[in-house]
Amino acid sequence: MQQFYMPVRVVEGAGCVRAAAPLIAPLGQCALIVTGKSSRKNGSLSGVVAALTDNGQRYAVFDEVLPNPTIACVRAGAAMAREAGADFVIAIGGGSPMDAAKAIALLARQDIADADIFAGKYSPDVLPMVHIPTTAGTGSEVTQYSILTDDVAESKTSIATPYLFPKLALLDGGYMASLGHNTTVNTAIDALSHAVEGMLSVKAGEVSDLLAKESISIICSLADDIAADTLTPADRQKLLHASMLAGMVIANTGTTAVHAMGYSLTYYHEIDHGRANGLLLGAFVAFCAQHLPDRTDAILKSGGFESPAAFSEMLAGLLGKRELLTDAEMKKYAAKAITAKNILNCAYQPTEAELYQMLKISLEEK
Fold this sequence. Notes:
The protein has about 375 residues and is an alpha/beta fold. The chain has 2 domains: about 10-175, 3-Layer(aba) Sandwich (Rossmann fold); about 185-365, Dehydroquinate synthase-like - alpha domain (Dehydroquinate synthase-like, alpha domain).
């Protein structure tokens, strides 16, 4: 049996935020805009304010979201939403503001203790959301996940419920014009990882595979321009589209071992999430090629690669010099990863020893 579910309305193209004002109007009278500091620089915040002004809707701005948002951060945002009388949320930014916005939309309406935030027991009473991604990587604008830093688990942990799907996603690649090169690279790799992991998930199906293959094809066709920092505005719109497709994939398949291992790199070493995935993705594809040859062949064909080694070479060109880990660190992270729920999503489930070997291949000094 296969399933595919996607309740988010997506509008794409230059100027789509202002043009979508009629779609935003029915959502409420007062918006809480959740963002970081960059939205004031790239034009996205002014675009949202213009749309709200067109509609006569009030707004408050919560711009205190930092990378890898914490429970304390989203509680502060939820408090602002209640104080402002916000009845819907608009998220602007990369993965962190969008993840934070979902948790804020939940906590603004539900009284949940810190210990229960990741327990999976939520009601449908969540503020409706509009998501406007300004990076091409997370795909959070079309997923039901809010990824937060969990200091108890010493990792990143997800709130996962269909109540967190946004109502509307607005994709304007023009907001990525000022994006730094490293962020462009890391977010593109994150999107690629989502598409690849989706095809290697036990929940993969025909629809998710179609979307994943298209996402892989777009991203890999632009790999040279991503590495050289020569993307055109049209290229950035394509990347944003590919990221959205990959988000639709993991909304249905979940992520797998790459994310399970990568979370430790981000938590303990502050390695950007997308980069952490990229450091591990080549080894995971090579591992899966031994056990899931049909699936990995389809991945490689979609990206235009003849072998897992060629795929890894492309990743190496994007990543540059690798970070290195000690043997003790790799053993620790393998032990943590094997307990992650992402492992259960793997179509072929690796052992702890196999996770350790992937970490060694990826992060041991050669």
